[in-house]
C-alpha cells in the first residue's frame, strides 16, 4: 500500500486543503521540484491577445507571447511519474500596481497539477501528454499532444550568437501570475462565482542560454493556439533548482471578488 505522505513528497495533508470532504482530501498545498524550460518568445497580433483577455480587467503590456515548454523533474505532486510537464502560453499584464503575467493557455501532464491549478488559482490548465527530450549537445525536442491528437511540436538548438528576447524589454521582468478564477453555475449557463487570484512562487532561473527554435502548432477547434499565428523572435533554455509552492514559500493572494 502507498504511503500517502510519500506520494506527495515530504508534506502532510493540511486541513481544508481541497474541495473534497476532509476524509477524502484532494491534494496538498505544498510542493517542490526543479524546472527546465525552453522558452520560445513570439510576437502575436495584439488584437488577438486583447480579445482573449476581454473578460478580464488586466492591461496587456505588449504584443509578445511566450511559449514555455517546462519539465519539472522530481515534482512532488507527480512522484509516481518522476516529473511533471507544463506548456504555458503567457503574456505580460498590469493590474492595480502589479506587473505580472497571465497564461492564455496551459497544458499539464498530471491530473493533480491540473485540478490544483484550476481550483486554487484559476489556471487555464488542460490535460496533455508530452515529450521533452534533451540531447548531450544541448538540443531539446518535444511535443504536446491532447486527447490523442497533436497540439504542438518544438525543437531547440543552442546557438551562442542567437538573440535573447524576453517578455519585456527591461531588466525587470514581470513576476508572479494572475488569473480570473471562475466557478460555473450548476443550473444555468453563467458564472456563479468569480474572483482574481495572484501568486508568486520562488524561482531562480539561470541566465538564458540562447538558441534557435522551430515550433509547429496544430489546428484544433477545442484548443485554438494555432490561431495565434505567432512569429518567433527568439528561443532560450533556462534552469531553476528552486521552484515550489505552499504558504511557507510563496506569495498567495485573493485580490478581489468579482461575482457575486
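Q: What amino acid sequence fits the structure above?
A:
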Amino acid at each position: 500500500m502507498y504511503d500517502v505522505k510519500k506520494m506527495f513528497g515530504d508534506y502532510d495533508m493540511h486541513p481544508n486543503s481541497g474541495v473534497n470532504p476532509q476524509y477524502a482530501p484532494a491534494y496538498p498545498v505544498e510542493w517542490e521540484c526543479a524546472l527546465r524550460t525552453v522558452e520560445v518568445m513570439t510576437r502575436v497580433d495584439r488584437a488577438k491577445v486583447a480579445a482573449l483577455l476581454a473578460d478580464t480587467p488586466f492591461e496587456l503590456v505588449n504584443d509578445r507571447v511566450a511559449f514555455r515548454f517546462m519539465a519539472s523533474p522530481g515534482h512532488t505532486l507527480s512522484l509516481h511519474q518522476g516529473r511533471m510537464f507544463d506548456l504555458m502560453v503567457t503574456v505580460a499584464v498590469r493590474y492595480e500596481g502589479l506587473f505580472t503575467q497571465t497564461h492564455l493557455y496551459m497544458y499539464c501532464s498530471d491530473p493533480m497539477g491540473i485540478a490544483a491549478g484550476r481550483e486554487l488559482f484559476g489556471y487555464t490548465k488542460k490535460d496533455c501528454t508530452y515529450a521533452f527530450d534533451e540531447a548531450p549537445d544541448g538540443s531539446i525536442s518535444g511535443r504536446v499532444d491532447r486527447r490523442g491528437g497533436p497540439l504542438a511540436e518544438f525543437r531547440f538548438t543552442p546557438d551562442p550568437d542567437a538573440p535573447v528576447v524576453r517578455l519585456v524589454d527591461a531588466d525587470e521582468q514581470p513576476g508572479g501570475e494572475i488569473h480570473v478564477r471562475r466557478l460555473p453555475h450548476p443550473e444555468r449557463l453563467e458564472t456563479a462565482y468569480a474572483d482574481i487570484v495572484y501568486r508568486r512562487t520562488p524561482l531562480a532561473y539561470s541566465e538564458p542560454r540562447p538558441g534557435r527554435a522551430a515550433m509547429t502548432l496544430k489546428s484544433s477547434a477545442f484548443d485554438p493556439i494555432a490561431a495565434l499565428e505567432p512569429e518567433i523572435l527568439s528561443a532560450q533554455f533556462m534552469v531553476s533548482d528552486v521552484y515550489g509552492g505552499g504558504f511557507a514559500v510563496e506569495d498567495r493572494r485573493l485580490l478581489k471578488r468579482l461575482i457575486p
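Q: And what stands out in the fold?
A: The longest strand covers residues 83-95.
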